[in-house]
Amino acid sequence: RAKSRGRNTYSHYLPCLTEQARERFELERALRTALANGELSLNYQPLVSLEHGQGLGAEVLLSWHSPSHGQVPPARFIPLAEDSGLIVPIGSWVLNQACQQAQQWRSQGLELETLAVNLSPVQFLHQDIVALVGAALESSGLPAQHLELEITEGALMHHSAQAEQTLKALKALGVRVALDDFGTGYSSLAYLRRFPLDKLKIDKSFLAEVPANQGDCQLVHTIIELAHNLGLRVLAEGIERSEQWHWLQTQHCELGQGFLFARPMPAEAFANWWAAQPLSATPQPVS
Ligand code: C2E
Ligand code: MG
Ligand code: MG
Ligand code: MG
C-alpha cells in the first residue's frame, strides 16, 4: 500500500522495518513530545443514573491531536504509551489535571459525585500509584470519595499479591475502584471476592445487541445480578439507543454511560451539558 502521508523520512535509516512497524515508530516518536507540546487534552463523558438519565459524574478520556498524525484514538496510542513507558508521565498528568478540574467545578457548584480516571496496568503495577493519587488529591483539594479509579482485569491478573496490596492502600486513601471492561479479559470470579472493588463496568460489547439478542441479555442480566449479590454497583457502557436504556432499567442496572446520553466532551462543553440538565439544577420534588 502506497503511503500518502509522504513522511517516510526514517525509511532510509530503518530499511528493515515493515510499513506497520515504521508507522508505530513514527507515532511513538510524536507521542514523546505530545505532552510537552500541549497536544493532549481531556474529554469528560457523563456517567448517568439510569433511573432518570441525570448526570452523576464523569469519566475522563484522553484525547491526542497530533499536528503530524491528526486526531489519534486512545486505542492506538495508549498501547504505545504503555510499551514505551510514556504512560507514566502522561497518566500522572491526566490524574492531576482531572482532579484539579473536578475540584474547580465543585467550587463553582458543579458537584460531580464521581470523577472516574482510567489507570493503565503499567501505572497500577509499576508506578508508585498510591503516592501519586495521594498527591493529586492533596494538591487539588478534591475529597477522596469523589475519585474513582478504573482498572482492568489485566491489572489484577499478574502479580495479584502486589495488586491486592496496592488496592488496599488506595482504598485506605478513601478513593473508589471500578473494574472496567468487565467480561473482556481473563475474568476470574475469584478476583471479585479477593479484591476490594466498588463497581463493575459492563463492557459495551455485551450491550451492543441488547435487547434483541437473547444470549447477550442473559449474560448482562447475570452480570448485574452477580454485581448486586456481591454488593457492587454496576454501570453499563456504550448505551446508544433508548431500547437499551429501557431494558437496563427493567434489569435494575443503576448506572450507565453512552452516546445516547452524551459523548465525551471538552471541559467547557461538559459544564454546559451539566448546567442544561433540569434535574441537576433543581432536584424535582418526589410526588
Ligand atoms: P474505556 O475506559 O472503556 O472508555 C470508554 C470508551 O467507550 C471511550 O472510548 C468512549 O468514547 C467510548 N464510548 C462511550 N460511550 C460510547 C457509546 O455509546 N458507543 C461507543 N461505540 N463507544 C462509547 P475512547 O475515548 O476511544 O477510549 C478508549 C479506551 O482508551 C478507554 O476505554 C480506556 O481503556 C483507554 N483510555 C482513554 N483515556 C485513558 C487514560 O487517560 N488513561 C488510560 N490508561 N487509558 C485511557
Ligand atoms: Mg474506563
Ligand atoms: Mg470501559
Ligand atoms: Mg471499554
TrEMBL record:
A GO molecular function term, named singly, is:
cyclic-guanylate-specific phosphodiesterase activity
- What UniProt keywords are attached to this protein's entry? c-di-GMP, Membrane, Transmembrane, Transmembrane helix
**GO CC terms, sorted:** plasma membrane
Q: Where in the cell is it found?
A: Cell inner membrane
GO biological processes: cellular response to nitric oxide
Predominant subcellular localization, coarse grouping? membrane
Q: Where is the EAL domain?
A: 24-278
Question: In its UniProt entry, what is this protein called?
Answer: cyclic-guanylate-specific phosphodiesterase
Q: Which residues of the full protein are shown?
A: 329 to 615 of 615
